[in-house]
Amino acid sequence: xxxxxxxxxxxxxxxxxxxxxxxxxxxxxxxxxxxxxxxxxxxxxxxxxxxxxxxxxxxxxxxxxxxxxxxxxxxxxxxxxxxxxxxxxxxxxxxxxxxxxxxxxxxxxxxxxxxxxxxxxxxxxxxxxxxxxxxxxxxxxxxxxxxxxxxxxxxxxxxxxxxxxxxxxxxxxxxxxxxxxxxxxxxxxxxxxxxxxxxxxxxxxxxxxxxxxxxxxxxxxxxxxxxxxxxxxxxxxxxxxxxxxxxxxxxxxxxxxxxxxxxxxxxxxxxxxxxxxxxxxxxxxxxxxxxxxxxxxxxxxxxxxxxxxxxxxxxxxxxxxx
Length: 322
Description:
- The protein contains ten helices and 15 strands.
- By secondary structure, it is α/β, with parallel strands linked by helices.
- The strands form three sheets. Strands 3, 4, 5, 6, 7, 14 and 15 form a seven-stranded mixed sheet that branches. The protein has a six-stranded parallel sheet with strand order 10-9-8-11-12-13, with helices on both faces. A two-stranded antiparallel sheet has the order 1-2.
- The chain is globular, with a radius of gyration of 19 Å.
- It folds into two domains: 179 residues, Medium-chain alcohol dehydrogenases, catalytic domain (Quinone Oxidoreductase, Chain A, domain 1, Alpha-Beta Complex); 135 residues, 3-Layer(aba) Sandwich (Rossmann fold).
């Protein structure tokens, strides 16, 4: 099979296609012939040498894919060779083949084509697990997501809107702000021009905030929380060390939660995937939520796809097709 490998830690130019041995599934695993994979921010960090894969995981980049089941490992039930599926991966997606624990393999949602399905697993599992399973967002609550035009943001806006929350989203251009509104954001905030804290506080504060910035937004996010609000941090684009005003947090009876998906035990990821199939897949099937794809590119152009993501000139997901 062919896979995208990084010759060294560095820029997008270190990525290139190379021949690798064909794979076979171990017990409890599924072998997928990949149709498409998607580019995530974590992929860029891994390419730069800052986010190594968990022990025992493929060195090939890629946290999600779609494709067709080519073989089943011992003990796998509920799937058949030839099934069209998508999967949440710990690594290995930028390749023609990938093996994955069966619990992280999901059927393609009704009404979604096989290639587009590659845009769904990572964002759906991230948003559902953090915003709903961890933070417990409820109908009528106020929800703020940063980076509303990205892969996570476009999914989070739609899911929260579909399930009855009042949605706030930040973005950096007029076009991206309009996209956020079209997807269901009640209020879209230009973070380059306006203070999201002022805007959100004027509406009563956020009950749940989904944050990918980390340190640089920590103080302001806490200020934007409503009483008993929950801040969920899933990224560190704005740094790793910030100052937390405990008195403000205490006064709000608030919570700051930091989570990650990739290093979780297989059993936890399987539980998340099962919950996503139960609760989120029907929303894709009826059109309440749809995958937002900026562009598709051949797998051989993975470097160009990384450069596009680094430019932030995209909206939604960037897919790599086999």
